[in-house]
Amino acid sequence: MSLFRLKRQISYWLNARHRRGHGIHSPYLFGLLTNVIENDGNYYAYETIDGVWASLMRSNVKVSGSTSTHEDVPEKLKLLVRRFDLLPKYGKMLFRLINEFQPKHIVCIGPVTGMTSLYLAKADSRISVNHYDGKKELLPVTKYLLDTAGVENVKIHDGLPDFYALDMKDAFVVLSYPEDSVRCREVIQNIVRNPGEKPKAIVVNGIHESQEMEEIWSELTTNQFVRVSLDFFTLGLAICLPDLQKENFVIRY
User: Residue 202 pairs with which residues in a beta bridge?
Assistant: First the structure.
């Protein structure tokens, strides 16, 4: 963990006040926080996903060419999962958010190893998940994880999508570039410029990973189409439902 992130994390734990709906006056947001985001109930799909996660954490397999700074240095797969994917408590949050928002389709962009896609896909097998711009070295891992969990509603694409042609209406978008602020900014700018309707929600992983990532998150939340932003430190949730009053919250999670 970098010194920058450590300082931000300490500040977050000292200053994040909103929890269990405390200080939230909007009935919609209060319900979203208490009934969905902070719901600690169990779901049948969790058993399968938890099994995949446990298997990964026991693995000593190394993947070559996967690190961001030394492309030729192998790194343990379980460490890559922790670096690029969301920890289970955040993955399960996404699972519940998909159930709540019921998007028409899900767009996942970034070098995740497959665990994030697994949480998204298992939320509702009727909703298609399109995964773009994955690290080519990690794609076999992604496919293996999805096959192991019996997931059939994920389609993997090389590179970024054509944002001007991409249908964002009623979509749920997940961006995971915690170590690549330049790529993250590029993707968000393309989403903003998309001439069509905006997605229902945008999740950004790693919003406090660096000064640049914090600036990117701040720029995104100032857009008028983003009505509510929720900062959970590890990730940010930008809700784009037009009927909501524009508000920003830091949530203790």
Answer: 173, 238
Name residue, tokens 């990964």: 56
What is the spatial distance between Cα 199 and Cα 162, in angstroms, rounded to a whole number?
15
178, two tokens = 């915690």
pTM of this structure? 0.92
Residue 230, strand partner residues:
237, 249
DSSP-derived secondary structure for 89-108: HHHHHHHHHHHHH--SEEEE
- Residue the block writes with tokens 């900062």: 231
- What are the backbone dihedrals phi and psi of residue 180, each rounded to the nearest 5 degrees, phi first? -140, 80
- Superfamily of 3-250 according to CATH: Vaccinia Virus protein VP39 (3.40.50.150)
Q: Residue 209 CB: number of other CB atoms within 10 A?
A: 21
Structure token digits, residue 175: 């961006």
Tens of pLDDT, residues 124-170: 999 999 999 988 888 888 888 899 899 999 999 999 999 988 999 99
DSSP state of 34: I
3-state secondary structure of 65: coil
Distances (CA, A) of 15 to 4, 12, 215, 231: 17, 5, 19, 12
pLDDT in the model for residue 144: 87
Cβ–Cβ under 8 Å, residues 105 and 128: yes
